[in-house]
Amino acid sequence: MYTLKHIAALLHLSNEKLPDDVVIKTLLTDSRKLLHPASSLFFALSGPRRNGHLFIAELYKSGLRHFVVSEEIDEQLFPDAVFLKVKDVLAALQQLAAAHRSQFHIDIIGITGSNGKTTVKEWLYELLRPDENIARSPKSYNSQIGVPLSVWELEPAHSLAIFEAGISLPGEMQWLEAIIQPTIGILTNIGAAHAEGFNSDREKLQEKLSLFRRSEVLIAHVDDPLIKEAVGQLPIKTFLWGHDEACALQIVSTERQSDFTMVNFVYQNKRHSLKIPFIDQGSVENVMSCCAAALYRKMEVATLAHRVLSLQPVDMRLVFKKGINNCIVINDSYNADTDSLSIALHFLQQQARNTKKTVIISDFLQSGDAGEKLYQNILDQLQKHKISQLIGIGPQMSAFMPGLLQSGHSPVKASFYLTTSAFMEHFHSFDFKDEAILIKGARPFRFENIAALLEQKVHQTVLEINLNAIAANFKSFQQMLQPATRIMVMVKAFAYGSGGTEVASLLQYHKADYLGVAYADEGVEIRKAGVSTPIMVLNPEASAFEAITEFLLEPDLFSFEQLQAFEDHVRKAGLKDYPVHIEIETGMNRLGFDPADMELLAQKLKNNTWLRVQSVFSHLAASEDEVEDAFTLNQHQMLVKAADQLAAALDYHFLRHIANSSAIARFPALQMDMVRLGIGLYGIGSGDIAGRLQPALRLKSTIAQLKQVKKGATVSYNRRGVAQRDSLIATVRIGYADGYSRRLGNGIGYMLVKGQKAPVIGTVCMDMVMIDVTAIEDVHTGDEVVVFGDGLPLTELAKSIDTIPYEVMTGISQRVKRVYWSE
Ligand SMILES: *Cc1c(COP(=O)(O)O)cnc(C)c1O
User: Fold this and answer.
1) Which of 503, 633, 676, 778 is the most exposed place for a label (fewest CB within 10 A)?
2) pTM given for the model
3) pLDDT, tens digit, 9 for 90 and up, residues 670-689
């Protein structure tokens, strides 16, 4: 337990004037994760775009009083606050975590490598937990910030800890080494991930190995000659595994069966066989890394073999789906412990700020904290995240929670069941409506059965939206902007097909300055989902004015007639200074005031007490087209001139903007006060920027049936597809009614089955399409088919039918289920 005074001393700061009685339990780096203000210490970390110091006022308001800062703060504004002033806030966080780590004399396992770190950590945890009380990194917290936060969770009751360390730049590992100080090291492998910043694999490997500088032993797989050589030169003890005879754990042979792998190995001069419940090479290697570590820690081979059988694939993703009765369902039944609960609740809140939230949780079968203390902690978290309803399942839940709720006068509505099946017997679908539901249970409770009741049942074609990729793309664009430039994100047309409210909630969370929609009803939907970010409506019809002012949407005004009509509406509604945007016509010839009319427009807006201009903007017609660059620059000039004329007449400031996604990347000079980001958010772009974006969408379906057809037989309507040889044809559950264009028929389009190309054969039907899988081995009904996504870029698919990704994305019909996930 640390007092603030103690922490100041650890950071080498003078602490005489600090209070003695303030106990700090939580180190906070993200203001949105504030849970216990009285015992939290906020680290005002600063990145290229976000400055932690800007959140101090907000946190102060929420009751937080203790801050680590590097900038000058006007302390008079925060009379009760304590500021610990340091040179480098991140370094201070790391230093503190390192000091905390040094208090412990238990085994600390440090894992690094290019792939498999999180999986090895989770599996090793599963293998060792029956005998140990283990601290481990939550999810994949392995960064310069994630590692100190993980290490801070170490408590005296722990007998072992497992932390992962990831780096992306040279020089970073030495900091992580100082924090983790692993006694046992595990190197998973070395591959192409995060190659940026390193000159060679050798250099990257050396950097990774520096994590084990002071370890007692390094456990490594040495079938890779590069690793073998490097590990051989280390001054520390090693425990190696691989095919080499010199290995402590020597692999003799591996036999892959249909749903498991047998590994035969020699350990301590004895031959053993291990049945591993996976068949892919990556998983088998990860299991073996864990086995080497378990054997090094003296686990019996028989015990190990038994425990390995129950390992499950590690899926660290948080996924949400549309549920019954307009609910959204987050299914996180992988692990039930307080760390992962906090992450899941945070995700729930991010997706459903102002809607009703229900949490269904089982007993937490975690070691360490138990009984009342554990359940009090859970209840605190539920209350903090404004959960409206709790459904608790399991004997411990039922024993502890009702009393805690009562004694705390908790407003959370609650019900309890001893078993999952008891809950399912009482289940009525109409009990759940218009709410967000988090399902979180330990494995034995089999909460997947509850998820199946709550998730909407639609056919098996799914558009997967990777929320991490969307957030990362948003940040990549932010980094291209001058510091003062704001971002409006265009979420029109159901956010380009990916889901308007879901994407809007995420963008509010990541602090987009503005959202843009095409029509008022799209804006209303977003408001109803609890998003309060300002929203501009590109095409406000007179019939929607009522909704616009009711939901605080900001119309784009583009003609005198429409301006007058809106002004009349505002006046009648008794409103004042209503925010509006003025669009100028500069070459698109779509919407906008003629620049020749600026004098007249200025007169209309000057001293206008009903309307207040938030921004003046225009839209580029050909920003992605190099041949038209002169035209683009001229459009910008025209906007500047028109805006200057309006500015001269108005006695207040407004924003100016013109750049869409491709202009942000291609014309830094056109960023002005704000940019309007659209397609780039989903990872689609060309030129330099393309390499920095991550594809966010993946459309996939499944095989309904397989057919052997003879050479010369025909497939689909009008007999347009002719088998050129004896062929294996797969029928896939997607058709033009789902948005898979008929133009992709007859060999134009292809899909991926097991990563390999399968061309479309014959005409695309309304709900199905046939593909030729003759060349692909081991295809079964039910197999997944990628329509676009990894390995099959949407841009390429669009190009093959002479259209643009925008059209394909917005054409994916609403009956295709959207599934959102996040790591
Ligand atoms: C759609 C739209 C954008 C975004 O365009 P992208 O090319 O998708 O970046 C920007 N501004 C306006 C007015 C739009 O209609």
Assistant:
1) 778
2) 0.76
3) 999 999 999 999 999 877 77
